[in-house]
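Follow-up to my post from last week.
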Amino acid sequence: MGARGTAIGLRIAQAIPVLFGVIVISFLLTRALPGDPAAQFAGAMATEESIEQVRTSLGLDKPLVTQFGLYLGQLARGDLGQSVSTGQPVIEELASRLPASLELTLFALILSCAVAIPLGVLAATRPGSWVDQLCRLLVTAGVSLPTFFTGIVLVYVFYYLLGIAPSPLGRLDFIYLDPPHVTGFFLIDAALAGDWETWFGALKQLILPGLTLALFTLAPIARMTRAAMLSALSADYVRTARAAGLAPRKVLYGYAFRNALLPVVTTLGMVFSFVLGANVLVEKVFAWPGIGSYAVEALVVSDYAAVQGFVLSMALLFVLLNLIIDLAYSVIDPRFGTSAK
Amino acid sequence: MSTTRRNFLKTGAAITAMPFIHALPAAAGAGDTLVAVTAQTINSLDLHRTGTNRASYAVAINCYDRLVTFGTKEAPGGGLSYDYATLEPELAESWTISDDGMTITFTLKEASFQDGSPVTAEDVKWSFDRAVTVGGFPTVQMKAGGLERPEQFEAVDAKTFVVKLDRPSKLSLPDLAVPVPFIINATLAKANATADDPWAMEYLHKNTIGSGAYKVTRWDPGQQVVYERNEAWVGGPVPSYARVIMREVPSAATQRALVERGDVQVAFDIPDKDAAELAEKLTVYSTPVENCIHALCLNTNFEPFQDANVRKAIAAIVPYEAIFKAAAYGRGAPLWGGSAEITDTAWPRKSPYDTDLATAQEFMAASAYPDGFETTLSISTDLASWMEPAALLIQEAVAKIGITVQLDKIPGANWRTAALVEKRLPMHLENFGGWLNTPDYYFFWAYQKDHLFNSSNYFNEEVEQLTNETLHMAMDDPEYAPKIKRMFEIAFEDLPRIPLYQPALNVAVNGASGYEFWFHRQLDIRSLSPASA
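User reply:
Got it. Predicted complex:
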């Protein structure tokens, strides 16, 4: 336990320079964005002096170094600043939007893994069979259909034509109120509150966007599972295990699959981070109040505080994600040890 | 939390839930609650705050009162519209204008704020002081009506409020009916003000403390605003809907699905394409936006465009009809092929030009550039939905008279600086619209030297003079009409801006009635009622 604790501590310490770099770069990059936020927020009819007033009130009249110093001071107090475009403190918005995105992404990934991993394993054990062809078809379709298109088709079929799905109006229909805030994940919060009606309400809203994203993420996971299983199955230790007369089940799941899991977990990590950013199109179609659309809108209007807050929170998330994946490695394959860098 | 939750479910769900259970007949949609969707996001409940966007003006309109408001008339193309020509009382019971036109005296109605305290002239004064002091857009808009300093406003007694003008102007009263000078509960606001924040910007950002028809009971930024009716409203007839939910849905396809199925009653401000397609199935109001013109601007700082024949040649070659179909899907009003003689003061009006290759070639041959020239045509990426098709069609058309045009797409965040402030784009598309609906007001912004929307750098001494003379002149002054007609003549002769069409505001309605178009282009929920009622 002590060794693992030290390893985690070391990893977190390593993340500090990375985070500082992210802070500097996001600060400089937002300032390099085209457009003048003061002119943007003063409105179309503004006069020169009213733009200057806005510039002063946003603190943009100070030299860049002073602005950066002030920003660091704010960060040290845990304050990410105030977003001008949404009029809310950035930290509050991230706290409400990040869970929305995470809930959707995790739900989609679980859905996608539940289909992709068994499919990949089956395809690998029976290469060339109909399962393999089905896998190939799904993978090609999943990759080639853009998410907003799949989303609109799903809305059209299941909501508009069939009327089975609920209105695509975000996380909860307005007959429900948000469950009391604990984690920000509606499914978890509603379950904690024991409010199953809201739980089902939230689940219903999740299904279509979750399915859309799952279709999209299916491809890399299924392909990677299939490839990793194929190479594991042709490895020497599997041949040895088979020769030793171990049960096929034991060979497949005990040896081949466990070894094939490592690249799959790596892919999962990549897919997760990728999807969290690529969510924005799905969020638009389903009016999902997630982090992707927040960031895009902030970028368009040069809303510095919001963009910086978004980049920083994503960086933190990625550091955390990599840590979890590394820890998962050592659980799956003890040879990695906990000191893995 | 849990008690409000339960209450909400008890009282609200019974009504609200009905439209969402698909098993129920469609008629269940008519209830006490209206659901509207829009792609716009509300970023503040206070219009006066720095950075408050257009969509947020809806809160000022629905939750606050102004002293006066505009009347109602039939809109061109169906439905209702506000009527710029008639002013009606909202919080003011009556008003008188002194003989010299310099003093307006308002008598207030017996009204109360939503917390029960009476509306007094002191509240009005505080609110107006705030609008002219906080800077940014509200202050600029107040200035348009000649309202610039707090000393101009005086609370004589509890029910009498006086506005003193520096000069008589026909724009002053209408400027009190725009969303900006809304009346705030000053006592409550001051109780929440601090030394750093004397105008209670922080408090009003998240709370509506007016006397208006609705109050915001819930605001989830980026998701929804929930309005609840103020039963004690005296500003007008009590609205039909007790609760209105304004939900943000960014995707136009999703908005369409929702309104077509009847799960929402109003899809507000939908794209022209969807409006054209939905119009076959639902009621779609496409009201041409008053005093707004989508125009092709020719910058007179650049050589070829200083030649009047070049400008006329371009005006004669622009494929108006094709642009109107491709960029606006036929929603809005055409602004070409009008008669050469100007007989009235209607604005926007059809220009005397139409697509005619022979005429264009004649003008071009007579110009200093018979062999054509090269230039750039700039558009904003934010407005690409109409600018891009229009620009492509223009590019193709002017090639026929030897003008080679390169398209230049400018990021939305840079557009204002490049087009309006620096005015450095040779040929570009522009879409100014004025809130105050008079031609002189349009000319003031778009045809006078150095004014913001004069992105063509146009300067004509006579237009300067005519605009200055007519801007504050009463519209029934005998001198007014001739001067305005003269302005139109010069504008069509000089052509710094070639009108393309008048854009429309599209609203799809399913299960509600009483939609009214407003110049501020936001949804006024006060006039809406269930369709069956």
